[in-house]
Input
Amino acid sequence: MLYLLNKDVRTVRWNGEPLHEATSAIVKETMNGDFTLNVKYPISDSGIYQLIQEDMLIKAPTPVLGAQLFRIKKPVEHNDHLEITAYHISDDVMQRSITPVSVTSQSCGMALSRMVQNTKTTLGDFSFNSDIQDRRTFNTTETETLYSVLLDGKHSIVGTWEGELVRDNFALTVKKSRGENRGVVITTHKNLKDYQRTKNSQNVVTRIHAKSTFKPEGAEKETTIRVTIDSPLINSYPYINEKEYENNNAKTVEELQKWAQAKFSNEGIDKVSDAIKIEAYKLDGQVVHMGDTVNLKSWKHNVDAFKKAIAYEFDALKEEYISLTFDDKAGIGGSRVSGGLSSAADAILGVTESAQEIALEKALQNIDLDFDHKARLLRQEISDGIELARARAEEVKQELSDTIDQRFSSFDNGPLQEAKRRADEALKNAGAGSLLAQEAKRISEQATADITKLKNEVVDGYVGKNTYQEGIRGIERRIEEVKTSTNGQIATQIAEYKQSVDGRFTSLSSQLDSKANLIDFQRVKETNLLYERIIGRSESDIAEKVSRIALTNQLFQVEISKTVDIHENLYISSKSEKGFLTFEGGIVGADHRKKEIVSDLIAVTPKTNMIFQHWVTVPSNEPDGKAWFVWQFFDEYKKKIYERFSGENAYKIVSGKQHNVNLVTVPEKARFVKISARMYDDGLIKVERGTIASNYTQAPNDTLEAVRTVQTQLAGSWAVQNLTSAGSIVSQINATNNQILIEAEKIRLKGKTLLDELTAIDGYFKRLFVGEGNFAKLNAEIIGSKTITADKLIMDQAMARMFVSSDIFTDTLAAKEAFINKLRSVVVSATLLEGYKGKIGGFQIGTHDKDPSVYWITGQNQFAVGMSNGSTQWGQTALWVNWGSDWGTPGNLAWFVKRSGEMYCYNKARFWNTPVINGDLRVTGDIYYNNKSSGGDSGYWISSPKYSRIEPSGNYLYLYWAGGGYDWIPMNKEISDRRYKSNIQDSQVSGLDVIEKFKTYSYRKEYDGKIEDIACGIMAQDVQKYVPEAFFENPDGAYSYRTFEFVPYLIKAIQELNQKIEKIGENR
Output
């Protein structure tokens, strides 16, 4: 079954919303690669598909690892189904940034630890571990993603230590080898369903250039050594493929050569890749998982090779493999142990007599190795271990209860005085009989001894019973087949081996049965502590922890307090006070933002383990943001002892959701502890006994949970009541002379129940649920049902008139007239659909606040969009979009149309085509154009019958014609103001000389579509020579000159000519 979980769930223990309609769910995992889930989910009337959103989680079963969390990244909605692609929860941290990592000659676990330390952002619930102890060197020089550091290629952590990554929800482990050789043989004539083999020589390497760079001890500079190694198969190929490798762990040429040669001998990089993908039938009790090595045999394809499972496809709905892909490293069948007794039996039947003993010996050796390996590496889900431990706890608890019951039943029914004497003695001893206390103490001690013995036995020799049973039974079937063969020698050998296996199996089964299938050894210890908390350690403890008994001639009463759950929260929030705990054990007032609290004194047991958990969200804008958490121990006199302790990350500046777990050993002198923490807006605290943290739960005293049960018997009455700590009744059974009262939030009668007569209080049942019932006659005023199935449903006219239903499903329903308060339908067809108020497709129909006298259709937000039915007044609004927030005044972005047809747009109006305006266009502002998106310019429009655009450029103003071409106007300002001049002196230029250089002409000028005859003029080219400052070139290339610059020369020439005339006159 698949389950849909909220995006922030951090545990796989919760189930969430069942995705029971899923039609396909395929889990795909590749060794050191992707881990994905692909789901097809139908779009159905249940509406569950609408709950499936990106970044939510799906809990799905996987092989070996059990339930895993996958985060939805790509939900694609088709016509009738969703296609969901989800990635394993571990991908959440693959893009985290890791600062440069440097590890020299360390284990893989140390490299992972350094990687976690170098994260820029905390990894939260994710943990990294490894069982590889090989010492190697690993360095990065830049900030990279966690994926790059951990997994990306040969120069990652996984590549450097040549490990295999196991992703188990939030726990990531790099293993030396993920699987094992279970002795599985898959053959074409037996269990091979589909076979696909791909050979590829593209990546063959026949020559290695290897180097190692390191700093020898005592040296100041690094040393680099290089070697070149050829493959033994280099002459087998018509080409040479070379590749560079680096191993900085090698310190000598010999070490580097040996390492490079291992690339050929161990990794087979000089061999053609040989990938085989298979689909197998049931493996006859054999098991294959990711990382396992199997013997693939196909006589048809001439294959007898050992291959490693590097990928699989798994059907998460049927919980079975679809296909397995095995690695492309070449292997020779005869060079390795064939593996597994079942495969040995195949070999025995098909080989000569001389090979029988060898094949049998290999089979026996493989079974022994497999047996020993499973004994060491048996691993089951921790949740299974918890359940088994709880089951064992319940058994011992039941034994204790039975013993106590026997003690009660053994009370002497003799004289009343003897009973009263015992009752007085019980009351005198604070409610507990001494014999009962001694017996309980004896049971506790015996339970402790039994569990200690059990723990030692499990630690010394625990093996997976079910797994081994499955393997042995499969072997037994194969042996029975061989025993019936004609070869007596083979049958005798295997019979002898079977006898030894039977003895071994019988002994093992006996041991395992006595061990009660316990897996989590720490849970056994905690269960022992649980018994001590149930019945206490001394005779006086039994009074408070087990029962209180009162016995008189008219009253018999027993009170049993609730046993303490091993994961019960001991922190009672209702008894905490505001403030924070000082180093001296005092309390100082709380900060209004940080909201510190201090718990009440919590009783503890010396030398035991406890877990303090703190959940809190630290605001991102908090300058001193810390998930601050401390505790202080106190002695039996409630005086402070030792120093105040700080929790995990208590003084680390953080923000966002935080969850810190602190494992604490209670000091020898401690009897109480106080907790202090910052709670901000959502803080939670859990204090529990043991070494394994559990999910948050409230303390029983913070809820209405029953904490004690009281049984009372009087003359003519008997009662059992579950009470809260405040004395309120949670549930009870109370029997008097002729009545029995049963009171609880839920009451269930399981099994067949016969009631002679059932009468409801006040004449009716407020709620009655019947799974299935036969009624000869059912009289009811109202029938509420999800489904009513009947060949005929008969009602008279009176009932039809009063027929009321919240939900009716039928193929055909016809009525001449019907009043339905609420109607839900996929399709409604009607000649006339008449209504006065309602909702259709997100629209509201009816009146609204603007005018209750007119009917409207509006959006769910009536201000956003709406229209009237046309019965509004002439100048009243009839259609609107984005009206605003006040019906009396349209907003600044409103658009609406009045009943008269006038349209008002307070926002921008955009047109992509040519708007046609048949009347006048009145503009109170500017007309602005913007052609930047198409590579043009922007500016303001002006009116002109000829020109379509005006644009300044250089010293000209260009006037562009509507049909093409342009005119221009010089834009230079011509001034001669003395105020803008300096260094003024008499001109030394001879104006007469300059003017005399010019020659005048008569000519015809043809330019710009005009023809002119000029009687006297000069050429611009002459101006360019003699008065260059007056010369200029038009934008179209035609030369011209400005007369403004010519005037001074003319004035000077006239003055000089006048001086000559005056001089001539004087000479005369």
Remarks:
- The chain has 17 helices and 56 strands.
